[in-house]
Amino acid sequence: MSKDWHSGHFCCWQCDESLTGQRYVLRDEHPYCIKCYENVFANVCEECNKTIGIDSKDLSYKDKHWHEACFLCNKCRISLVDKQFGSKADKIYCGNCYDAQFASRCDGCGEIFRAGRIDTKTIGGERIKRAKDNNEDIAILSMFLPGATAAKEQEKFRCHLGMDCRVGDCRDTTPGTKKMEYKTRQWHEKCFCCCVCKTAIGTKSFIPREQEIYCAGCYEEKYATRCIKCKKIITSGGVTYKNEPWHRECFTCTHCQVSLAGQRFTSRDEKPYCAECFGELFAKRCTSCTKPITGIGGTRFISFEDRHWHNDCFICAMCKTSLVGRGFITDEQDVICPECAKQKLM
């Protein structure tokens, strides 16, 4: 203090009480008695709401202040002086209590991401872009900043568990330690694996289903559409018959094995047959030409008693005119028109 006072004029800047022979505090070159200084300038403790006097240590964090004895974990009440701590909703917690209540946990093993305090960066940008272009699902890979670019951050890093750090060294940032993230879920790299074969997914494509993660191979094995005939996976194309999937090459005539994909066919006893085999095996036969009457393609036919004819074959045995839609007379195994029947009787 470079100013000089008469002893009678050396007074508190606030209350004008003499400071001669008394303890005082300078603030902006002005002297204050202890009482006025604490009333005007001292901070209030966040915990006990009492003034933090000049004889007490003032601990501050984010514009809040505590007596040294009041700087405690909000949960377990352990002192946080000279210890790492975390804050949430304007409350402070020791490392263990903060982790137990708020720390991110792996969706695979349920353990805490212990090194979650250091800045992370996303890698594999080209892989992510390629996945988006191909409409694939991939997880975003995060890792601690490696090399010289992160030297300053790594120097500042301290595990909040301090001496209880599970790595063994509370200053260890382990560049390259990774965390996998997909939508709202996250895993340790080793925990982000196929739920069936347990193979690590890494940055490879995968398929999520009902909260589970599958590699492409296991998903196909478990859920992919399989041919009803050969039981193998249908990867492209395919044919559906009676709501069941077939490979095109597997969808064949039950009798001759010719492919029916894209061809006319019919069924018998739930089995598919090509037109030729169905006619040969099951169809009625024309009394006139003895060929099968399949009905495929809208073929029309005539039936009389236990005999059948194609429409085109149902003709008069004598004059060969069509009898479709006309009256006819049977003559033993033949059918004839009324005119020819009259002539035959004359």
TrEMBL record:
It is found in: Nucleus. It comes from the Eukaryota. Signal peptide: none annotated. PROSITE patterns: LIM_DOMAIN_1 (PS00478), LIM_DOMAIN_2 (PS50023). One of its GO terms (molecular function) is transcription coregulator activity. This is LIM zinc-binding domain-containing protein. Keywords: LIM domain, Metal-binding, Nucleus, Repeat, Zinc, Zinc-finger. It comes from Anopheles merus (Mosquito). Its main location: nucleus. The keyword Hydrolase does not apply.
